Amino acid sequence: MIQPPILIPGDTIGITCPAxxxxxxxxxNCILTLEKWGFKVKLGKTVGSKKDCFSASDxxxxxxxxxxxxxxxxxxxxxxHPANRLGHSEGILVGGNLCLMTHLIGxxxxxxxxxxxxxxxxxxxxxxxxxxxxxxxxxxxxxxGLAGLVVGGFTEMKDEAAEFGETVIEIIxxxxxxxxxxxxxxxxxxxxxxxxxxxxxxxxxxxxxDEASLLTKI
Length: 218
Hints:
The protein is an alpha/beta fold. Helices cover 26% and strands 24% of the residues. It has two domains: 59 residues, no CATH class; 142 residues, LD-carboxypeptidase A C-terminal domain-like (Glucose Oxidase, domain 1), CATH 3.50.30. It has a seven-stranded mixed sheet with strand order 3-9-8-4-5-6-7.
């Protein structure tokens, strides 16, 4: 089980009523005590409100609880990579597994990548398959007009790069040659333990510098 770090003064504690209603005055002592201890308090709209025997509607209570759980997402960072293409951009994050993304080409579910940050990763592929899939994506326009490209792990490859003649990084650089959007490699999105959660469909800022690559939800 993953144990979260202990709370320290300056941290924010959220108070919400995901079930029955409670009068605001009954929460005031709790708020004052937490603030006295040095914590910040984020009070939900469901505190002090009432709908029948509940604090709010099912939709409102669920939405507020989800918002409290998500909080402010911390930036995801990767070390600088010599093959990175530097730059800054913003856009909706799309993509995921390269194989599945390629299979969607030509269907009603084909990804719309224009002006968006595309992330790709895969597992258990041959280098020639990665090359073929990326060429198919390029021919379908999925690599044109991106806001940025985030390259995660291509793990458990079924052959050596020497057999194909290029590494996955070299394949990507060749196929995206001439593009002007930032690209970062070795980002912690993969099928291995080094796999950070991202929210597809959410807006992110991508910053690729000489020091590091940062993907920040906005």
